[in-house]
């Protein structure tokens, strides 16, 4: 698949690289697994003097020996003596960068925390001492969000406040997904596009997988997901167990309930029979996996709160795969596909609302976009979009079937917000 989008990210990386020719730059790049971080960074490195190093789960000595050989090959330099400690490797690289400008990218940087946590303080000492005389474009990339956040944003950590730039790599926007699907299958239908958005969520690897397999319809996508050796079946576990550590069973249970429409804290606690406040807080603020949804115009501290999983695919995985994992283990893929087909209209309806909210955000026309429901969890309005400058409000019902929309009913429900919209 050709390289799509990311113009803004590439432009930012180019500016950082240009600055590094004058003084050393440390850029932190974070994004979930499969989002396309490495592809983006390698695209930026094309035609540049750049060294890409992957931090595998190996001993520090083995990693350093591999790193040294890669640097020697690309920069055409030699070393004196053996380097088996990262502090010595990094000091050597910083010394090389005093006389030449180049990029050094360390992928899955958070793995050093498991290999040797002292590496971070050793890096800090060398960076602080040498950066003013260096022309290194240092890029530190990671996919375990909580660990990367702790390494660089925890004031007690040695690399706190050392980064000169930070980038969060997000999924493809809906307009890009539409472009990709149109290029691959010009005859796609709106239903195909919704399935493509629902099941990939704009995650580059999932998009590439479906495109390369010619999976352009819901049925073909489900065949790719529910098949032997599918990358999708264990994706939730592979993506999140390292994030959650020993508490992963509790986190997985909470996410499974949210994916099954148990979206309020009281609902979750009544089923799990335990307090989940700290877990919800970490899922939202440490892992960035869920977000609070409040009725538009409600106070930030209001008690009317629902939760939703941010990532489309993980919402699908917890709602259909994790919940039926015994069927996965025995390879009963027809059962799983039938489960999805049965519940897909409801699930895709939620995703269709999300799709149009994302489109409205991308338009740049509105200062506030949200949804509305009252204290009785009724009188729901799918989308409310506000333009405070023009005093304009948009109310929308989102349905797959146009005949199910009643504009008169929508107009009546919108009266609940009249007090907030005087002059609109």
Low-confidence stretches: none
- Euclidean distance between termini CA atoms: 46 Å
**SSE order:** HEHEHHEHHEHEHHHHHHHHEEHHHEEEH
Query: At the fourth CATH level, what is the homologous superfamily of the largest domain?
Result: P-loop containing nucleotide triphosphate hydrolases
Q: State the CATH topology of the largest domain.
A: Rossmann fold
The structural domain count equals 3
Q: Mind summarizing the main beta sheet?
A: 5 strands, parallel
Strand content: 5-15%
CATH class placement of the largest domain? Alpha Beta
Average pLDDT for all residues: 95
Proper CATH architecture of the largest domain: 3-Layer(aba) Sandwich
Strands of the widest sheet, in order across it, are 2-3-4-1-5
What is the general shape?
A: globular
Structural class: alpha/beta
Instruction: Report the helical percentage.
Output: 40-55%
Strand tally: 10
**Helical segment count:** 19
- Radius of gyration, Cα only, in angstroms? 24 Å
């Amino acid at each position: 698949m050709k390289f799509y989008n990311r113009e803004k990210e590439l432009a930012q990386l180019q500016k950082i690289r240009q600055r590094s020719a004058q003084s050393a730059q440390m850029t932190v790049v974070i994004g979930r697994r499969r989002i396309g971080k490495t592809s983006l960074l390698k695209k930026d490195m094309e035609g540049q003097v750049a060294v890409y190093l992957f931090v595998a789960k190996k001993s520090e000595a083995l990693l350093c020996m591999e790193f040294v050989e890669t640097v020697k090959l690309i920069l055409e330099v030699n070393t004196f003596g053996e380097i088996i400690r990262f502090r010595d490797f990094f000091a050597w690289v910083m010394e090389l960068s005093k006389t030449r400008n180049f990029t050094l990218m360390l992928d899955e940087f958070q793995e050093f925390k498991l290999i040797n946590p002292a590496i971070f303080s050793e890096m800090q000492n060398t960076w602080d001492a040498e950066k003013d005389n260096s022309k290194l474009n240092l890029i530190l990339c990671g996919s375990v969000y909580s660990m990367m956040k702790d390494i660089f944003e925890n004031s007690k950590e040695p690399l706190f406040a050392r980064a000169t730039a930070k980038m969060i790599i997000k999924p493809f926007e809906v307009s890009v997904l539409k472009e990709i699907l149109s290029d691959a299958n010009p005859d796609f239908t709106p239903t195909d596009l919704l399935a493509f958005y629902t099941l990939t969520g704009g995650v580059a690897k999932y998009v590439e997988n479906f495109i390369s397999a010619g999976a352009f319809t819901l049925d073909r996508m489900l065949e790719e997901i529910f098949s032997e050796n599918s990358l999708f079946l264990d994706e939730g576990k592979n993506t999140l167990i390292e994030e959650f550590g020993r508490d992963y069973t509790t986190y997985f249970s909470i996410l499974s309930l949210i994916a099954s429409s148990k979206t309020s804290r009281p609902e979750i606690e009544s089923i799990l029979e335990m307090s989940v406040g700290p877990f919800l807080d970490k899922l939202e603020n440490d892992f960035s996996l869920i977000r609070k949804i409040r009725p538009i115009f409600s106070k930030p501290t209001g008690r009317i709160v629902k939760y939703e999983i941010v990532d489309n695919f993980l919402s699908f995985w917890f709602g259909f795969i994790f919940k039926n994992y015994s069927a996965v283990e025995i390879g009963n893929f027809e059962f799983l596909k039938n489960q999805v087909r049965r519940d897909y209209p409801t699930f895709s309806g939620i995703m269709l609302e999300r799709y149009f909210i994302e489109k409205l955000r991308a338009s740049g026309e509105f200062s506030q976009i949200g949804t509305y429901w009252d204290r009785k969890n009724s009188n729901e309005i799918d989308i409310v979009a506000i333009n405070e400058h023009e005093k304009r409000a948009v109310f929308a019902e989102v349905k797959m079937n146009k005949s199910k929309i009643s504009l008169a009913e929508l107009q009546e429900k919108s009266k609940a917000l009249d007090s907030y919209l005087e002059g609109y």
